[in-house]
Amino acid sequence: MIPYTVNIKLAARTLTGTLNLQNKTAVDWGWQGLIAQGCHSSILIIDPKTSQTIQVLERHKANVVKVKWSRENYYHNLSSPYCLRLASGDASGKIIVWDVVSGTAHCEIQEHSKPIQDLEWLWNQDASRDLLLAVHPPNYIVLWNGDTGTKLWKKSYAENILSFSFDPFDPSNMALLTSEGIVFITDFSHSKPPSSTGKKVYIASPHASPAHTKPAPAATPAPTGAKKALNKVKVLITNEKPTTEAVTLNDCLQLSYLPSKRNHMLLLYPREILILDLELSQTVGVVAIERSGVPFTQVVPCAQRDALYCLHENGCITLRVCRSTSAIEEAADPEQSLQELVYDLRSQCDAIRVTKTVRPYRMVVCPVNENKAALMVSDGRVMFWELKAHTGRSVANPSSALSPLYSPVSFCGAPLGPNQKRIQDLSLNSMIGQTLIAGETPVPTSNQQEVQLKFLLTGLLSGLPLPPFAIRMCPPLTTKNINHYQPLLAAGTSNGSVLVYNLTSGLLHKELSVHSCEVRGLEWVSLTSFLSFATSSPNNMGLVRNELQHVDLPTGRCFAFRGERGNDEPPIEMIKVSHLKQYLVVVFRDKPLELWDIRTGTLLREMAKNFPTVTALEWSPSHNLKSLKKKQMAAREAIARQTVSDAEQSSVESSVISLLQDAESKSETSQAISAREHFVFTDTDGQVYHITVEGNSVKDGARIPPDGSMGSIACIAWKGDTLVLGDVDGNLNFWDLKARLSRGIPTHRGWVKKIRFAPGKGNQKLLVMYTDGAEVWDTKEVQMVSGIRFGRNVNYRILDIDWCTSDKVVLASDDGCIRVLEMAMKSASYRMDEQDLTDPVWCPYLLLPRAALTLKAFLLLQPWSGTFTMDITQVDYSEKVEIKGLIQEQLNSLSNDMKSVLLDPELSLLQRCLLVSRLFGDESDLNFWTVASHYLQLFAQARQLSVTTEGGSEETQPASQNHLDICHDILCECSYFQKFQLDRVHLQEVKRSSYEHTKKCADQLLLLGQTDRAVQLLLETSADNPSYYCDSLKACLVTTITSSGPSQSTIKLVATNMIANGKLAEGVQLLCLIDKAADACRYLQTYGEWNRAAWLAKVRLNSAESSDVLKRWAEHLCSPQVNQKSKAILVLLSLGCFYKVGEMLHSMRYFDRAALFIEACLKYGVMEANDSSNKLIEAAFLDYARLLRSLGLREGAALWASRAGSAGEQLMEELFQGEGGVPEAVLGDDEVEVGLEGTE
User: Fold this and answer.
1) What is the mean pLDDT of the chain?
2) CA-CA distances (angstroms) from residue 880 to 81, 316, 851, 886, 1192?
3) pTM
4) Domains of the chain, each with CATH number or no CATH
5) Shortest CA distance to 747 belongs to which of 719, 708, 780, 773?
6) In this protein, which residues make up the domain named WDR11 second beta-propeller (predicted)?
7) What is the pLDDT of residues 1-53, one digit of tens each?
8) Among 27, 401, 544, 919, which lies 20 to 30 A Cα-Cα from 679?
């Protein structure tokens, strides 16, 4: 037998159902790996890997309209740990910032009382990660401190703001989507509100604006039919206000920057997606839907590849990937191939059946791996789709013109080892290789495999159906049933099905389709079977079809309990099962009641026609089962003794016992005992009748006249010696049967709908339900314990109530939820770490901060004393057993593929760092290690090649097969960056449609050094244009520039004068013409145009000059007023300044990152351990050893200390003097300085 410590302590929880229309936009998938979703006024936290709800946050009073996880773009340590932080905004304008694990609110923010339009955490600067930007209707943006709830600044705009989008490449740029157009802000900063009102541009709806009917400029060839359609969308963004009919058609659904390439933005319309190049304010790509296609509702752009996840109105998710521009040579019509960016449909998932109540709301995509999407449906379902890559050519349609996609040859940023384990579907960029751009030679395909992408449904989470519900908890836990007890809750629904939930996990145990119409009530007849009844809608005589079904849960067998009866009779009002589950009373509206025997399924008595009309009925808890059993036992014993009287005396005792057991089991199967039970009921006058049932005899007992103070009795409850009556006027009458006293109490809350006693011996608590809420009463003291009321402390009406355990109640409410609450009925979120999940969830954020860091170190520092292990107990780790257990649970919940990769000795240090940062969803780590691993390998290769030439300067870099993705922008290799920029200007040139555009293109071409093409564009200027003369002269100048001394010095003089007089761009152009781009960069930096200078250095300067410019930029980024050190580190990595990076990481106290990075540098031979560098290496290793010691990992600490010179030896001694004596002092000052970053 199980010891008595069985855990039937149920957590308070909420089972949720359908969503409200206002919840449509309230969903977010965080870097932490969890999905938050608003459901009415609650917020669900869902784990997409196991598709379970692991937390429900309740504090909002209004519907939740926005939720946003905080970004993980910062270095994590004990003072800024891995924690689950979520901001949510509701329809009444309140914003709550949550600590999700404990289910408590950090702070609550209220500015106006209108629904929050948009929310976003700022993630870019290294100063604070608590800043939250919100749009408060109609036209305010406010920056809040999300930790304290203080307002930092507020700014209003002229139009109503619908949403905003931050530029992922430049945090000072953002765009607001307003009711009339787009407002671009270029001076966003957390320290003060934007000073200007921003640059306003109007979007003309793609089909309404007269601007589209303009003839195409003569330069472009006459368009074909398909091209005509695209010419329509040539001019889209205008600075002047469009005509009135165009404004009414502004149906732009969404605006977002593309995270995959800089200065590109996407606008979503129901039938097309437009890709804009913001430098030109010009459409460079259109994804249109053919006439019969299903309109878009949402699009999520990816960062790792230039790809779009699109959601359509039928719930179908499609993935479109940008076509390589290098496929031009193969294209039959070269003119067409260059027209614009084309997004090819690569994969799509199945649609859902859309009805009035079921429609797709939103889709979210995993931000870490970008290969999983979740679809939220209005009926509360969440569908998890995962993108899978299948190698091999597609057989289906070989004629399709799509160029093949190839899988990359590397894993986690490094080439695959010969027999290295890999996870193909780890993330989007490990599934499909980079899209090639013009001028690049395609990689030989010998080792590359062609891939097909498919969506696979990997999980489904379904909610409760639409209310109303009838709920009933299974019989309570007793000492007899403790071994096989399951806390099941049956909920009857409006469509006739019964859902059975297991309340330890909160998951659906069974869904049974029992009835053809709405379920009116349920009663359990054992731990595994119940009776439920439903009534159809009445015919013109007021008669209905009654269905009373008996359902057996283990088998799902279901039969009509009343046999053929039930057609054309008055509706059943209620069913009541006796305490011993022997008898059943069925009460009808205008027909006498029926009394049934549940065990045999026979009708005992149908009452006579003159039987009084029943208004309320309850079985008495008293019965004579015990005395009957005693009598029977005595009789059986006597029979048993007679049977064995002639046998030998020795074996008598044992045989008596066995015979007794035999008789016992027989009697249990035949159920010979029929105990006497009683029930009471009231009639319309309030008179109380008492009736006794024994076997098949029914006796009428005493009658008690009505109590004058009570109205018509609506319900009765009876437990022990207490009987409680409730009436339609809200009076409760408590009868003490022992003392023969009665006491009436008016509650003034209207009709008493239901009253139920709590289970458990001597527990005299009573749950009362009214039309507008519920109360818990203590019948011993006759006083109210707690209560909730619609409109006062909750915003839902209660439909049904029951006791869930002796101290928890369960309420069904009209917002489609079923809530398990403490007796105090305060709706509370629970602690996530206290509940039993059926499937373990991988989420290091659920651990204590220290344990999460330990888990990370444990995975990073494999192997431990020579063995690769996933068992934390094999490591010298001094910590409480519970915490060790929790860490081990996390390790066990990793997938087998992931475990095998982590245990693979082939996995290099850099790959391991990248993989672990992906597992932890650590944005800052992931960015750092992606760039670091790329450039470490690149410079290591260069070093091997250039052993003869001195140093690894960039000219000797090998043409590496895989370059950094363009989403890293300025951090990419120069050669690739130049190609990309040329490709882009080429596209801009094809798409230009006005003089403004042509001028911008010519400027870009001059800066890129493409003088011939620039001259052609300058000469296109028409004679009636005011700048015709100027442009013609400029064309002459460009063609005649020679490198003779005098002309150069003149031009340089003119350029510097121009710059001094505020014409920066023109001066820079002139300097680029005479190959003085280095000077141009210096001027740009002097005037604060840092990004432009970096861009110019990448496209025009040789490596030495360009690295000078970028180093100056890195210094600027480190300055306190800019405070973007993490970005500076990435810039230095791309220049190969590894020693400097190591120093900076160490001085910023990023101890684990610094030590692992230096270790990797030493491994790849790009840093040598000599006298100058040893100081840094030893300091970094020593600090890492101290950090590991503070986490309790002694073995790891000893390993790193042993490599940290003399100071390390001292630490080793401290580690092993006595047993784990960690001096407090060391820990102390480790903690103190974390806030103050000691920079150089």
Assistant:
1) 83
2) 20, 49, 11, 10, 10
3) 0.87
4) 15-206+233-325+339-394+450-461 (2.130.10.10)
5) 773
6) 486-805
7) 333 334 466 778 888 989 999 999 999 999 999 999 999 999 999 999 988 88
8) 544
